[in-house]
From TrEMBL:
<dbReference type="InterPro" id="IPR036188">
    <property type="entry name" value="FAD/NAD-bd_sf"/>
</dbReference>
<protein>
    <recommendedName>
        <fullName>FAD/NAD(P)-binding domain-containing protein</fullName>
    </recommendedName>
</protein>
<dbReference type="Pfam" id="PF07992">
    <property type="entry name" value="Pyr_redox_2"/>
</dbReference>
<feature type="domain" description="FAD/NAD(P)-binding">
    <location>
        <begin position="9"/>
        <end position="274"/>
    </location>
</feature>
<dbReference type="GO" id="GO:0004174">
    <property type="term" value="F:electron-transferring-flavoprotein dehydrogenase activity"/>
</dbReference>
<keyword id="KW-0285">Flavoprotein</keyword>
<keyword id="KW-0274">FAD</keyword>
<dbReference type="GO" id="GO:0005737">
    <property type="term" value="C:cytoplasm"/>
</dbReference>
<comment type="similarity">
    <text>Belongs to the FAD-dependent oxidoreductase family.</text>
</comment>
<dbReference type="GO" id="GO:0050660">
    <property type="term" value="F:flavin adenine dinucleotide binding"/>
</dbReference>
<comment type="function">
    <text>Putative FAD-dependent oxidoreductase.</text>
</comment>
<keyword id="KW-0560">Oxidoreductase</keyword>
<dbReference type="InterPro" id="IPR023753">
    <property type="entry name" value="FAD/NAD-binding_dom"/>
</dbReference>
Length: 358
């Protein structure tokens, strides 16, 4: 940084897909703080492969200090926002000129990279020693996990219990039907329109009863139901009025929080009308990076964010995938070639300025 320039302070709360990329994009244009309870960035779409191949996570868990060169890291959670400051869980008040909220989801995962790697190892051992596996939730996480298991461990009996009337209900019916057929061909037992109460689960449980009385035996169980949003912490401060009834932050076309001129929101917590995907969270980060650079230079013209289409891709093990494009839905090796081998880990690392190794 040049000593003669007075840098504006940009505080980013949340070091996930959107916040991490934004910090990297603006760290040489401002005095940047990144507040995140974890010491590392996790590429979320790689974490199901890591359950069947724990070493895969070595490339997808990246300490914040390894891709950020000029950002001050605050290892804590944001707990309150005022007009000028953010209060963190360790009692620090951090002043901001510009604030970006990127708190996505409140993952209950270890706070250090090493512990997270050990967690994947433990999950792998649990999986390896099981003959039967129960997956609760038939959204993208549950379906991708089932795909990983049936491809890597074809002998295991997998059951998916899903509350909805079709799998992958965030995308079109055609994709759901194709995936259901794919899973059935791999002998996955799919139970739709029923659920297992999460608060009744216990450690070491081997028999489960669904809401319509079906009994399922399983040596281990993975909870893959949707994660809540991490916006409850905003209810105390100046942004409480900016949350919609679903707990999403309302933003305008520049991704500025409604009614604010120096507070942006990016990623899954926004009310942008599009499916919630990391791919779009990265696009939010790119638009806000441009807007912050413009504002810092004293500019007035800001870039608009154009909401995404309903494009989505769900991997089915190491070679296949289902993809929904604007005009068609495909399943099999072709979409698999785009996503399933490396799960975009090399690409994401490159975007973070990292070599593709460990
Ligand atoms: C298993 C899985 C597979 C997926 N596959 C794909 C895929 O193939 N393609 C795709 O595009 N998307 C995929 N997604 C969705 C994608 O991961 C999300 O859309 C994306 O992570 C959203 O980014 P985000 O930055 O908004 O939030 P997140 O990535 O959830 O990051 C939020 C960050 O905020 C931190 N945080 C939370 N609360 C606080 C707080 N109070 N203070 C400070 N920090 C806080 C968290 O620790 C985290 O670091 C997948 C998701 C999962 C779980």
């Amino acid at each position: 940084m040049e000593a003669s320039v007075e840098y504006k302070r940009v505080v980013i709360v949340g070091g996930g897909v959107a916040g991490a990329l934004l910090a990297r994009s603006v760290e040489f244009h401002a005095d940047v703080f990144l507040i995140d309870p974890k010491e590392y960035y996790e590429i979320p779409w790689a974490n199901l492969r890591a359950k069947v191949e724990p070493d895969f996570a070595k490339r997808s868990l990246i300490n914040h200090k390894d891709y950020l060169r000029n950002t001050r890291l605050v290892t804590a959670s944001g707990v309150k926002v005022t007009e000028k400051e953010v209060l963190t869980s360790d009692g620090r008040w951090i002043l901001y000129d510009y604030l970006v909220i990127a708190t996505g989801h409140p993952y209950s995962i270890p706070l250090t990279r090493l512990e997270r790697l050990q967690q994947f190892q433990a999950e792998y051992q649990k999986l390896q020693s099981a003959d039967s596996v129960l997956i609760l939730g038939g959204g993208p996480t549950g379906v991708e996990l089932a795909g990983e298991i049936v491809v890597d461990f074809p002998g295991k009996q997998v059951t998916i219990v899903h509350r909805g009337s079709r799998l992958l209900d965030f995308i079109g019916q055609k994709a759901s039907t194709k995936v259901l057929d794919w899973l059935k061909a791999k002998h996955v037992n799919v139970l739709l329109n029923q659920e297992v109460k999460l608060d009744e689960l216990s450690e070491g449980q081997k028999t489960y009863e669904t809401s319509n009385g079906t009994k399922v035996s399983a040596d281990c169980c993975f909870i893959c139901t949707g994660l809540p949003l991490s916006t409850e912490w905003l209810r105390e401060g100046v942004l409480s009025e900016c949350l919609d009834r679903h707990g999403r932050l309302m933003v305008n076309e520049h991704l500025l929080v409604r009614g604010k001129s120096n507070v942006f929101a990016i990623g899954d917590i926004t009310n942008v009308p599009e499916i919630k995907q990391g791919f779009y969270a990265q696009k939010h980060a790119a638009v806000v990076a441009k807007n912050l650079k413009a504002l810092i230079k004293g500019g007035k013209k800001l870039t608009d964010y154009c909401p995404g289409t309903t494009m989505a891709m769900v991997s089915l093990g190491r070679r296949e995938a289902v993809a929904q494009f604007p005009f068609t839905t495909l399943i099999g090796r072709f979409p698999g070639m785009i996503k399933s081998k490396d799960l975009f880990v090399g690409k994401t690392r490159k975007e973070m300025g990292l070599e593709d190794g460990d």
